[in-house]
C-alpha cells in the first residue's frame, strides 16, 4: 500500500515532546513535510537565499476557474515541483479532484530514493482566496 503522511498536515504548529524539546520528524514524515513545504512555497520566493528554483508555480493558478484545464496545470506544476526533490526516486501518481467550486484535492504518490514503499500525500488547493 504505502505510507500516508497527510495526517501530519493537520498539525502545522511546532510540537513539544515530554522532555520539553521540539519534536523532530524523520523518514517518510520528514519527506512528506518537505514535499508539502516545497509545494506551498511560491517558486522564486527563496531566491535571495540562493534557491531560485525552490517551490512551485501553483500560486499562478489562484483565481483560475476549477475546470479540466486548471486541474491539468495543477498536476503539471506539482510534478515539476516534485522533480526538484532529490529524495524522490519516482512519481507514479498525481491526481486532482474537484472538492468544491473553488478548491481541489491533490493526491500525490511518490517513491522515496531509499525505499520501495510508496508515500501518499493528499492536500487541498484553493483556487480562490477567501
Could you walk me through the main structural features you see in this protein, from its secondary elements to its overall organization?
The protein contains 2 helices and 4 strands, in the order βααβββ. The chain has 130 residues and is α+β, with helices and mostly antiparallel strands. The chain has a 4-stranded mixed β-sheet with strand order 1-4-3-2, with helices on one face. The protein is globular and about 45 Å long. The model is unreliable at 6-11 (pLDDT under 50).
Task: Compose a concise summary of this entry.
The chain is an alpha+beta fold. It has helices spanning 27-40, 68-82; strands at residues 3-4, 88-100, 103-112, 119-126.
Structure classification? alpha+beta
The helix-strand sequence is EHHEEE
The poorly predicted ranges are 6-11
- Class, according to the CATH hierarchy? Alpha Beta
Shape: globular
**What is the alpha-carbon Rg in Å?**
15 Å
CATH architecture: Roll
- For the report, how would you describe the main beta sheet? 4 strands, mixed
Range of strand content: 25-35%
CATH topology: Nuclear Transport Factor 2, Chain: A
What oligomeric state do these chains adopt?
single chain
Query: How many separate domains?
Result: 1
Number of strands: 4
- Straight-line distance between termini: 35 Å
Q: Residue share in helices?
A: 10-25%
Mean pLDDT: 89
Number of helices: 2
Strand order of the largest sheet: 1-4-3-2
